[in-house]
Design goal:
β4 and β5 form a beta hairpin. The protein is of the alpha+beta class. α10 packs antiparallel against α11. The protein contains 12 helices and 5 strands. 52% of the residues lie in helices and 13% in strands.
Amino acid sequence: MIEECIKYLLKQDPFFFSQWTSLPETEKLELIQLHKRIEAVGSATLDQLPQLQEDAFKSTKRLFVSVQELEFLYSRIPQDWAQFAKDKEEKSMLFEKTKHIFDSFRHEFLPSNVRLYGGIKSDSSIDDKLFIIKDGDAVQRNVLDLWDLVRFRLIAPDLNTLLKVGHSCWEIFFDKVLRCRNYYYRPKGGFYYDPYRAIHFQIEIVPKRMVELQLQTHVRESICWLDYLIFKKNHKKLDKDIGDWIKLQSIKANIFEAAELDGKFDKGRNFIENIVT
């Protein structure tokens, strides 16, 4: 299905077309091959996927329990943030300053196989946010969700490396962190069957200016290539079969990655079971 999905997105979505066609052919092939390996997960035992999904969540939750969550510090939101959102020059300056800081952080503290890239939120995406009806308390409902005007991603090759990246972010940027959302420990809505997995930091990297830093694995990044329309609430634009396949692929990706953790927590489980019995 991966080739069919890519052909569909190339025809239907200009953003995907521009991003995909700019990739080197070797990277396209690697991405397709990775998706084929993910797709093969549970192919012979589709009825077992719910249990495999729950098991994968429990394993990764346990692995990432030490990446502390922090609720948004709303009191530190810059008062001029709405004005800043409209200032292209200021956003561009913040991006360049932040990129230099994160580049230095990556080279000095992270493994060499961790990648960094970023960008500035498009004006159209900002406009879309203005019309979203929000949940939460009175403060949360009346503050624009524009924390990712300038955003970056650190991509780790595997879960264990991602954990190290999460620890390093907390260690180095501790006093600058305005929020940390650990979707491995607490998925969206609190439901393990929501498959999105990443760690999001909002960091006041420059005084009175914040940026978003997303931590993802290479496997989860491969899912983001396909499912961003679903997260942008544009799923009505997707063919239902394509959309259902992408959602299933996201679930399988988590199972695929958790397989590398097999046996990692046996020592603890065996100790508890022996004590209880």
